[in-house]
Amino acid sequence: MGTSSPEMAAALLLVMAALAGVAAGGDIVHQDDEAPKIPGCSNDFVLVKVQTWVNNREDGEFVGVGARFGPTIESKEKHANRTGLLLADPIDCCDPPRQKVAGDVLLVQRGNCKFTKKAKNAEAAGASAIIIINHVHELYKMVCDRNETDLDINIPAVLLPKDAGNDLQKLLTRGKVSVQLYSPDRPLVDTAEVFLWLMAVGTILCASYWSAWSAREAVIEQEKLLKDGHESSLNLEAGGSSGMVDINMTSAILFVVIASCFLIMLYKLMSHWFVELLVVIFCIGGVEGLQTCLVALLSRWFKPAAESFVKVPFFGAVSYLTIAVCPFCIVFAVIWAVYRRMTYAWIGQDILGIALIVTVIQIVRIPNLKVGSVLLSCSFLYDIFWVFISKMWFHESVMIVVARGDKTDEDGVPMLLKIPRMFDPWGGFSIIGFGDILLPGLLIAFALRYDWAAKKTLQSGYFLWSMVAYGSGLMITYVALNLMDGHGQPALLYIVPFTLGTFIALGRKRGELRNLWTRGQPERVCTHMHMQPLPKDINCDAIDVVTD
Known about the structure:
Layout: H1 6-17, E1 23-24, E2 29-30, E3 45-54, E4 57-66, E5 82-87, E6 105-109, H2 115-124, E7 129-133, E8 157-160, H3 162-171, E9 177-182, H4 191-227, H5 236-240, E10 245-246, H6 249-269, H7 272-298, H8 303-307, E11 309-312, E12 316-319, H9 320-338, H10 345-363, E13 364-365, H11 369-389, H12 391-394, H13 398-404, E14 416-420, E15 429-433, H14 435-453, H15 463-483, H16 492-509, H17 513-518, H18 540-547
Parallel strand pairs: 5-6, 6-7, 7-8, 10-13
Antiparallel strand pairs: 1-15, 2-3, 3-4, 3-9, 4-8, 5-9, 11-12, 14-15
Helix pairs in contact: 1-10, 4-10, 4-14, 4-15, 6-11, 6-13, 7-9, 7-10, 10-14, 11-14, 11-16, 14-15, 14-16, 15-16
């Protein structure tokens, strides 16, 4: 509690990185390679709003999916016709209706015949559109058979899930029902993605400065001890007390294996109880991250409380400031967990998530560019595989399914930052995985620590250009997301080449790549040679390796 344990930081890193690479919006327009377009059956699959009125009073709104066949559904609400709704007789419309519909919308059950046959029968009876109630709670894609030729259908068809369709049918018992069918377009620029971009860049910015400041404070304290003649500061135990974790080559490579296993476990065990378990894990990590950030911020104003410690069973020495802050953090996390399905619960989730990411970046460190390159390269391949290639084995994108929380009644797993699409007629959330911030953030924090150690200016260093590269890569991710009609994208596919490529290119141009690649810190001449007889060629970097 007082200081974050390295073991917890490493565990949280793996949990978050298992959802490393998905930036997603809701899928409104869909292509389908398994149901190719044919003449007369070439519409994109779009979501359709079904607004209802009962006895001329506005009532509920339902959402269905449009068919591959028929005319394109109107996108503007003001241009969509408001039409009466009738229940078909026979109810499945597999045979021609017994009544004349006279321009009304026909409501039918799924039945056992083809979607196209229902639409033809409804059109022949005079219907202006057909709404089909599915026999299950999911939505199907209404397609045509490959060998169908008579596809001259001139009325739109919409499929509703079973529960929504039954609710719509019940409205008919209350009086005269009218409906309006339309499929509004999404705005060209998603403001939620803009704020999500600012949130991701700001999180890395804050975490990097905290990491670099902590490293500089540790160096200052070390040099002070060396100057005062405290030789014990050179002991390995002193270096371990800092509570920092340096990633090595082995752990960088094993990350892909462990994270993949964790992701498959999430995919296979995804259920209500498992999401509840993830919520508990997220709350524990969120409490740890939030209290660490608050203690660091408040210690400037409450220095005596931050420097006074008391022993607590199982936790060791804990500062009085931590004891004062921790109950607030626990209550905050519990309140979020209880009310996480409320409209504004995303605010609490983002606060806990950002605090957790900042804390992990401050604790877990990349020692040199070699380890950073291996970690990000492995994450790059991992992201692409589980977003795109996993479809070949699992028939769906494992990463996206886990991130959205499919197969559960939850609106996605908690290991995500999310912002509601406030100006989108379809609502929903734009999301980004923790790993899309955390993994590049480790490299960017390393860049700032190196710049400060080398006493580089902002322009001559690596941090500024790494931040610009990350922001550009994330921006390209959202551009690709919109060009792909909302299909989830592996964000690291774009972020890693921008960030890592910029870092390596700058290092090579400046002739510092070898030092960045192997040492990860600038060469410095030791100023404390008078302390004890040491080899003539020793420098401060040799001491730093021992004490960091």
